[in-house]
Every structure is written in structure tokens, then in C-alpha cells.
Amino acid sequence: QARLVESGGGLVQPGESLRLTCTTTAITSVFNPATLAWYRQAPGRQRELVASISGSGSTDYLDSVKGRFTISRDNRRKRGYLQMNSLKPEDTAVYYCHLGESWGQGTQVTVAS
After folding, report:
1. Rounded to an integer, what distance in angstroms lies between the CA atom of residue 103 and that of residue 6?
2. Running along the chain, 113 residues long, what does each successive block of 10 average in pLDDT?
């Protein structure tokens, strides 16, 4: 429903880090308590779930990012994050934030030498 905005993407070299931020544009008192998720879609591939965090704080990660990525949320500030460390070329994709019924428009992450 185009109420989320992603930021923080960019071009980095392998091994470097990025932090993505998901911010709501809706006028709400608190961040939607529904599960917050980050998806990504690489060229020629289907969109895949990268990480999620429930309203209670339970997290799940795509196997290939475990130990490298960390998802978090700040409901009071109505903001979500994806900290990405030790980035690999395979992480190159457009990253999307999803919360409740809302999607962001995506932010490009490119990992290349």
C-alpha cells in the first residue's frame, strides 16, 4: 500500500556492510505490530524472504544470510532495520520492506569489486 520507504542501499565491495532502514509514511502512533520482513529480488530470480521479525521479537533468516544479517525494529519510532555485514556479490538485489499490508518501493544493494 506504498506506506513504507526503504533507504540505505548503495554500491559496496565484498566484505563491506550496509544498514537498510524502513520508515513508515503513515500517520500512526506506533509501528504496525505485525511481522516486519525484508525481501529481496535479484535479476532473473524470484523475490525471496530474507529476514523477518514478529511483533514479539522472534526472528527468522534466510539460511544464506544467517550470521551476517540482523533484522530489528523500533516500534516507537516506527522504523525497521536490516544490518547487513560481510556482504557478498550474491546479495546484490533490490531489497523491499514489508509490514502488514504495506510494501516499500525497494532500495538497490549492489555488491561488486
Report:
1. 9
2. 85 98 78 88 96 93 98 89 98 95 94 96
